Automatic annotation (TrEMBL):
Sorted UniProt keywords: ATP-binding, Nucleotide-binding, Transport
InterPro entries recorded: AAA+_ATPase, ABC_SmlMolc_Importer, ABC_transporter-like_ATP-bd, ABC_transporter-like_CS, Mo/tungstate-bd_C_term_dom, P-loop_NTPase, Transp-assoc_OB_typ2
SUPFAM superfamilies linked: MOP-like, P-loop containing nucleoside triphosphate hydrolases
Any one GO molecular function term: ATP binding
Domain ABC transporter, first and last residues per copy: 2-232
Descriptive protein name: ABC-type quaternary amine transporter
EC number(s) on file: 7.6.2.9
Length: 338
């Protein structure tokens, strides 16, 4: 469906997107994820036709889009800076793309009603946009983007303005809706929870490059680099010398997954792999703090040697602040980073 080949965008001396190649298959939902300034929005704007690339090509269904204007690309946009028209009612907003295409009035009305049903706002045609809640406005914007049946829907921080609870609900609804419609989606977010809940594939960007691309599970389980690991919030990273089935680190010996190549590397231990036990066993650590995280408690530890550690444990097992514990590591939560 979409193929980017070696796309580069420069702003003066700054390279915002650096020889990026990316394919999006029919019906696939791909989320670009990354810190601020990593080039996500610029890449999206290139695909939309809002930003000409300095080098590289954008193909939609095999056709080079060089020189093709936004409205002829057959893509739907739901961008942060793409607000609803406040002077039009909900129906007028949703019908916008259909009017532009010269659709007949009764076809417009039918399609608007269908879309409003789909986004959970049946019968809202005559409501004023200003009288809608933030979440309702997002749904209208989505209906407007979907109305002309775009071959590719592009979303830039689609739920950015909304509070967390609503975002978590809407993201699940969006995924179901796109699945039902078979919509191909390229979305941008800096919120990893949103990306992981929405996407079939997550593309993590760093300084205009793709740092990692994979299914949410893949990326979560096997971050490819220290950058990706830390971006996902994993901070238990340490230098390690791997020999055989173990690694020597400042935290002592850590078991590594079978088949890990020998050498000096960085190693990540996911918090679930940090086991707390008797102070006589393993690495002695002092409990510095505890944070309640819903299903578990995150325990911050100061080890006798090496950088701070975070452990994850069940509420009832969480040691008190100031306690001294012994830490051991489980190999299935250890990732040797590239
Ligand atoms: N129109 C522009 N003129 C000059 N520099 C720009 C322009 N647009 C983007 N940039 C720069 O290009 C880089 C990438 O920006 P971009 O907006 O694509 O990042 P992003 O990952 O989407 O960030 P955010 O999450 O903050 O939106 C940044 O350094 C930004 O300052």
């Amino acid at each position: 469906m979409l193929a980017l080949k070696d796309v580069t965008v420069r702003f003066g001396s700054r390279v915002a997107v650096d020889t990026v190649s990316l394919d999006v298959a029919d019906h696939e939902i791909v989320c670009l994820l990354g810190p601020s300034g990593s080039g996500k929005s610029t890449l999206l704007r290139v695909v939309a036709g809002l930003q000409p690339p300095d080098a590289g090509t954008v193909l939609l269904d095999g056709t080079d889009q060089a020189g093709v204007p936004v409205h002829r690309r057959g893509v739907g946009l739901m961008f942060q800076d793409h607000q609803l028209f406040p002077q039009r009612d909900v129906g007028g907003n949703v019908a916008f793309g259909l009017r532009m295409r010269g659709a007949a009035r009764d076809e417009q009305a039918r399609r608007v009603a269908e879309l409003l049903d789909l986004v959970g706002l049946p019968g809202a045609e005559r409501r004023a946009v200003a009288a809608l809640s933030g979440g309702e406005q997002q749904r209208v914007a989505l209906a407007r983007a979907l109305a002309p049946r775009p071959r590719l829907l592009m979303l830039d921080e689609p739920l950015g303005q909304l509070d967390r609870g609503l975002r978590e609900r809407l993201v699940v609804e969006l995924r179901q809706l796109f699945g039902r419609l078979g919509t191909t989606v390229l979305a941008v977010t800096h919120d990893q929870g949103e990306a992981f809940a929405l996407a079939d594939r997550v593309v993590v960007m760093r300084d205009g490059h793709i740092a990692q691309s994979g299914t949410p599970l893949d990326v979560w389980q096997r971050p490819a680099s220290e950058f990706v690991a830390r971006f996902l919030g994993f901070d238990n990273v340490v230098e390690a010398t791997v020999t055989g089935g173990a690694a020597d680190t400042a935290w002592g010996q850590i078991p590594v997954p079978a088949g890990s190549a020998p050498g000096t590397v960085r190693v990540l231990v996911r918090p679930a792999g940090v086991r707390l036990g008797d102070p006589a066993d393993g690495l002695r650590c002092t409990v510095e703090g505890r944070t309640f995280r819903g299903h578990h408690v995150a325990v911050r530890l100061r080890p006798e040697t090496g950088p701070p550690l975070e452990a994850e444990c069940a509420l009832r097992d969480a040691p008190a602040e100031g306690a001294v514990v012994g830490v051991t590591f489980t190999s299935d939560e250890v990732v040797v980073l590239g």
